[in-house]
Design brief:
Layout lengths: L13 H5 L4 E3 L9 E5 L1 H6 L4 H4 L2 H7 L10 E3 L3 E3 L2 E3 L7 E8 L3 E7 L15 E2 H16 L6 E12 L7 E10 L5 H10 L2 H15 L13 H23 L1 E2 L21 E2 L23 H20 L3 H30 L10 H20 L4 H10 L22 H14 L4 H11 L7 H12 L4 H11 L28
Antiparallel strand pairs: 1-3, 2-9, 4-5, 6-7, 7-10, 8-10, 9-10, 11-12
Helix pairs in contact: 5-15, 5-16, 6-9, 7-8, 8-9, 8-10, 9-10, 11-13, 12-14, 15-16
This protein binds adenosine monophosphate (AMP) and magnesium ion.
Magnesium ion (MG) binds next to loops.
């Protein structure tokens, strides 16, 4: 950790300088009444920033790229497959890259809700509701606390403006200052494919490798084209990311290719949520009527997104198109295997099963069978996902597990709780998992606290009405999600019924 700094660290702009065609200069719109409502102190400390200074007028100017010697903020150019359809120029329509902070690792400082840019759609306002800004802040802190690579909020800014979204009444607007390894996305490469020369696209590949996968760059003769190396690296990180989401019952909500990062961090949280009563078809986004981005579809859609990524790289992978397709297809097949392994490991840990690296295929099959049987049971009996795994973590006798809320596994169902527990015990024995190992695995995999939809929604409404006490309490709880704390006892509870919860993309 670096020492806190008082003065404004200089922001760099390596990306905008290297790729001016991908970064259009654009001034953030910061209304005069804006004030910093919250600073993420742990993150500020990690970045060597003085949190108290960030909350001042000078700090606000620095955060929003409007200080005296601020670099020129830019709006990032990118395309995207949105709900399956190609959209050539979404770009940052209400967001700005303020600059890059060069520390141990270079990070982007990026704004959301900071006004119109050259990429804004006609009729849009370039703004974000304050509630949506707080939502993104809370989700980022939760994922981070849960050990998932993610972009994080550095500050929440209230602008004092009122904007119209749903309904006849206006709501307060806000600006999120967020930090990520970068905001380069799969959609960046679609845009580059259409607008940049082959040489510049090669440079873009190299820039991304240097920034996010420097260990994969070799000085001498490359063993394979760098575009293929990048495709494989992103596929591997995305496999880990989606497996982690699945293990937490997290639904991102809008997995368009413009929301899929090259770094492998989770970015751009809109209508995302953690599942309460388990259902593989859980969808929370009001606009995802077909369930394209439902819980169970996340790995498949990520592979689909990676296939679109591959298409943007094909001519860089091999000059012979057939050969290029062949090589890209091999990498996409590797995604399936990486994902399968990551998913097995994530859920094995949740069940207190130690699955060693070199476990025989038959053992993996037994573990996979147990995982699906567990999820079948949760789904059939509408059991709270997080509550179930935490109860399992804390019980001495899975056959007499106290299920969350008043849920029950009906004895007349496909499997009884006793049969399921017997299967769990068999698999633990088969894998040679000691009781202590089972406990340790589960303690580290099964959180007590997630940002529960019903509690978060209530807290966001309060924050929008001017009182952020409750959302800050939720953020506090989810930062150390595996440790029970009496102050947060009420935040553990599942809602009486979770059916019908939706969040809105009109963010
Ligand atoms: P997001 O939901 O932030 O991932 O945005 C998806 C796309 O829609 C991006 O290109 C945004 O810039 C654009 N967008 C979303 N909301 C607005 C808005 N209020 N004003 C302008 N552009 C927007
Ligand atoms: Mg987006």
């Amino acid at each position: 950790m670096t020492e806190p700094q008082v003065s404004a660290p200089r922001l760099e702009r390596t990306y905008a300088e290297a790729f001016p065609a991908l970064a259009a200069e654009a001034r953030p719109v910061i209304p005069a009444a804006s004030r910093v409502a919250w600073v993420n102190e742990p993150l500020a400390a990690e970045l060597g920033l003085d949190a108290a200074w960030l909350a001042t007028a000078e700090g606000l100017a620095w955060l929003t790229g409007s200080g005296e010697d601020a670099p020129h903020p830019v709006a990032l150019a990118y395309s995207g497959f949105q709900f399956g359809n190609f959209s050539p120029v979404p770009g940052d329509g209400r967001a700005h890259l303020t600059g890059e902070l060069a520390g141990d690792t270079r990070v982007d400082l990026h704004l959301k809700g900071s006004g119109l840019t050259g990429f804004s759609r006609p009729g849009s306002d370039g703004k974000a509701p304050l509630a949506a800004v707080w939502r993104e802040a809370a989700i980022g802190e939760a994922l981070h606390g849960l050990g998932v690579p993610t972009s994080r909020a550095l500050a929440v800014i209230e602008t004092g403006e009122q904007i119209y979204r749903r309904g006849p009444r206006p709501e307060p607007a806000g600006i999120l200052a967020r930090v990520a390894a970068s905001h380069l996305r799969v959609g960046t490469f679609h845009y580059a494919h259409m607008n940049l020369s082959v040489e510049d696209r090669e440079r873009l590949v190299r820039y991304n490798l240097q920034r996010h996968y420097p260990h994969l760059l070799t000085d001498g003769e490359e063993a394979e084209p760098q575009a293929k190396t990048l495709l494989r690296a992103v596929a591997e990180r995305q496999a880990q990311l989606v497996a982690a989401w699945m293990g937490l019952g997290f639904v991102h909500g809008v997995l368009n290719t413009d929301n899929v990062s090259i770094s492998g961090q989770a970015i751009d949280f809109g209508p995302c949520a953690f599942i309460d009563e388990f259902s593989r078809s859980a969808v929370f986004s009001s606009i995802d009527r077909q369930g394209r981005y439902a819980y169970r579809n996340q790995p498949g859609i990520t592979q689909w997104n990676l296939a679109r990524f591959a298409e943007s790289l094909l001519d860089l992978i091999h000059e012979d198109p057939n050969r290029a397709v062949h090589e890209a297809t091999d990498v996409l097949a590797e995604f399936e295997e990486s994902y399968r392994r990551a998913y097995l490991r994530v859920f094995a840990a949740k069940l207190g099963v130690h699955l060693s690296e070199g476990a025989p295929a038959a053992t993996e099959d037994d573990v996979a069978g147990l995982i699906e049987a567990t999820l079948d049971m949760l789904e059939a009996a509408s059991i709270d996902f997080t509550g179930f795994f935490r109860a399992l973590t804390e019980t001495e006798d899975p056959a007499h597990l106290r299920l969350p809320g008043d849920s029950q596994v009906p004895e007349s169902g496909e499997v009884s709780l006793a049969e399921w527990a017997a299967r769990l015990t068999r698999v633990r024995e088969l894998t040679g998992t000691s009781e202590q190992a089972a406990c340790e695995l589960m303690e580290a995999a099964n959180p007590v606290y997630i940002p529960r939809n019903w509690r978060l929604e209530e807290a966001l409404n309060q924050a929008a009405a001017g009182d952020s006490t409750e959302v800050l309490r939720i953020i506090d709880a989810v930062r150390t999600p595996f440790t029970r704390d009496p102050r947060f006892a009420d935040l553990e509870d599942a809602p009486a019924s979770s059916t019908g919860f939706v969040t809105f993309c009109g963010t």
